Amino acid sequence: MVDLRSDTVTRPTREMRRILAEAEVGDDVFGDDPTVHRLEEEVAALLGHEAALFVPSGTMSNAVAVAAHTRPGDEVLLEETAHIFQYEGGGSAALSGVQLWPIRSDTGLPDPRDVSARVRPLGDPHFPISRLLCLENTHNRAGGRVLPMDGFRSVIETARSHGLAVHLDGARLWNAAVASGRPESDYATLCDSVSVCFSKGLGAPVGSAFVGSKELVDRGRLIRKRLGGGMRQVGILAAAALHAVHHHRTRLAEDHARARRLAEGISELAGLDVKLDSVETNIVVAEVVRGTRDFWLRELRERNVWAVGFGGNGVRFVTHLDVDDAGIDLALDALRSIEPE
Ligand SMILES: Cc1ncc(COP(=O)(O)O)c(C=O)c1O
């Protein structure tokens, strides 16, 4: 079978299991875990920031970010299909007491004019305080698109000109770096904080990092503790994450090439539609044009190909460390053999 539901489904490699078994550990809540320190230092340096904090998930990393930048009652601007708005259980409202104001966009990147138009006047007690802009790169719901650097820079400059801080949900920033040929720090240093995940394309079993200035990350450490995310001998997981950062970044290009081959095959089918120019990394979103989405998902599953429903009427396929060329062949053969009504 081939599991194309998400890049989160990878199993730790044999080498990764060996490394995590041998990891040097300590109690990280006491600040004693040397492997966690190494991971945090390396990731902060890689992204061009002062400090990093190892957290259990991308969702917690974003929750820490929103809480660290805001106070209850503040307003946060973000694109309307952003992961923080769509898929984090309403955490920003529940945990930070902030109000999210989503902005529509076709590409995942908000237009600077829409950001400006939503910034509230200061000093009028009718209004919440506009505090933070959240961006996402690569953008999951936009089909893994890489935010173009010019637009990215320009929306950040606009946000800053209004006094907003900027947080980047970079769960797949590694993919954006490989696809654009730019180092991760090109994007990361433009933002006040960044969240990166080790458990997606990089293939580690668990973990993300919240990255920013030392002051912000210290505040994040308190928030992580409040959320129950302080972990003890977590160097075993940090070791897997370090291994993934060292050895699984450049190979993301293989995932991107396989996603493209899959998308090209899908584009020849009558029953599914895929916008080839939107396939820039490891995510392929196909819109159902014949049959129903449930039909496609069921027929694929019967042929040992796993995908997920996505957005309005889409089917999402994601390539990753555990998908090889034979997996793409299996998926294409299955797709070609399905005949919708
Ligand atoms: C863009 C983005 N941000 C954040 C997350 C959350 O990560 P986690 O599943 O580790 O909580 C995901 C998960 O897929 C994601 O795609």
Automatic annotation (TrEMBL):
<protein>
    <submittedName>
        <fullName>Low specificity L-threonine aldolase</fullName>
    </submittedName>
</protein>
<dbReference type="InterPro" id="IPR015424">
    <property type="entry name" value="PyrdxlP-dep_Trfase"/>
</dbReference>
<dbReference type="GO" id="GO:0006567">
    <property type="term" value="P:L-threonine catabolic process"/>
</dbReference>
<dbReference type="GO" id="GO:0006545">
    <property type="term" value="P:glycine biosynthetic process"/>
</dbReference>
<dbReference type="GO" id="GO:0005829">
    <property type="term" value="C:cytosol"/>
</dbReference>
<keyword id="KW-0456">Lyase</keyword>
<feature type="domain" description="Aromatic amino acid beta-eliminating lyase/threonine aldolase">
    <location>
        <begin position="3"/>
        <end position="286"/>
    </location>
</feature>
<keyword id="KW-0663">Pyridoxal phosphate</keyword>
<dbReference type="InterPro" id="IPR015421">
    <property type="entry name" value="PyrdxlP-dep_Trfase_major"/>
</dbReference>
<dbReference type="Pfam" id="PF01212">
    <property type="entry name" value="Beta_elim_lyase"/>
</dbReference>
<comment type="similarity">
    <text>Belongs to the threonine aldolase family.</text>
</comment>
<feature type="modified residue" description="N6-(pyridoxal phosphate)lysine">
    <location>
        <position position="200"/>
    </location>
</feature>
<dbReference type="GO" id="GO:0008732">
    <property type="term" value="F:L-allo-threonine aldolase activity"/>
</dbReference>
<dbReference type="InterPro" id="IPR023603">
    <property type="entry name" value="Low_specificity_L-TA-like"/>
</dbReference>
<dbReference type="InterPro" id="IPR015422">
    <property type="entry name" value="PyrdxlP-dep_Trfase_small"/>
</dbReference>
<dbReference type="InterPro" id="IPR001597">
    <property type="entry name" value="ArAA_b-elim_lyase/Thr_aldolase"/>
</dbReference>
